[in-house]
Design goal:
This protein is mainly α and 70 residues long. It contains three helices and no strands. Helix 2 (26-41) packs across helix 3 (56-69). The termini are far apart.
């Protein structure tokens, strides 16, 4: 269901960070990890599976904003 798809999306984002590490782009990997962390723990934008009320689209917009703005 939706919960499974969201968890897969998080796994893919973290895998992307690992790939960036692998290709020696630690700067970008760290930026992605920081954006995920800040979106979840500072902005408190969370989908229902993580105890929040945000839609997947709302979470994605918040994450992209964090990635763009550091």
């Amino acid at each position: 269901g939706m919960c499974h798809r969201r968890l897969v999306a998080f796994a893919l984002m973290l895998a992307a960070a690992m790939m960036l590490d692998h290709v020696k782009r630690k700067d970008l990997a760290d930026r992605l990890r920081r954006a995920i962390d800040a979106t979840l723990n500072i902005d408190m934008v969370r989908t229902g599976d993580l105890g929040g009320k945000a839609s997947t689209s709302e979470f994605t917009r918040a994450l992209v904003s964090r990635i763009r703005n550091g």
